[in-house]
Amino acid sequence: MPRPALPAAAALAALAVLAAPPARAGPWGGLFSGITWTSDYRYQGISSTDKRPALQGYLHWQRPDGVFAGVFASDVHYYDGGPKLEIDAYAGKHFELAGGRTEFTPEVLYSTFPNNRTPGPTFDFLELKVEAKRRRGPLTLAADAAFTPQASFGAGEAWIVEGEADYALTPSLTLKALAGRRWAHLGADRDYVSLGGAWGLHPTAFGPRYVVELKYQSTSLSPARCGFNPRICGPALVGSLSVNLPPLMLGGS
User: Can you give the pTM of this predicted structure?
Assistant: First the structure.
């Protein structure tokens, strides 16, 4: 059964409620927030919750010129006695090209596990990422590359490349596919895939209020190469329900 909401996720949910009264957008942009329940939190194909459910939340700020920053929090469970909370802080900027059909985004992210008591190297890491996205009718293609100077638990330098394709069958139903590869100085390299779809409900000016997703996710790692917990590398069918709350627009006149 899922554990009760952790403090950071609960705080994000409270901020989302405070953000409910909308106002007109201004030069400082807007605050967007939401919460998600997922049957399994997967990072690059590997379960971060030992194949257990997780509660997640986000708070995202974005200006009209494409500058953005935010925070994401999630339950995690790698093993008994390990960290139980992940918090990611990120910032970047969207650059639009070709009349907005193409987008280029550099981003920096810092991931921390504040209640980790595991002896040895830290789980925390810094990631530098660039993404290119192209929209053509119902099809959206994206490719990104990321570099981590020091991956979790002393794994050294790590590189990640991903390709993603989304196809909107209808205004509310989108098919989604993602494939990626991770190389690390220490530890096993891996390929990973995600195939599924997202169904948006209750459309608003800022996107659907509710999103239901179902995905098949897997990696190339065998149980013998999965490290301390062979369970977390196996394939899984992952479902989630997200609630995107009404935004708070800042700087309106």
Answer: 0.86
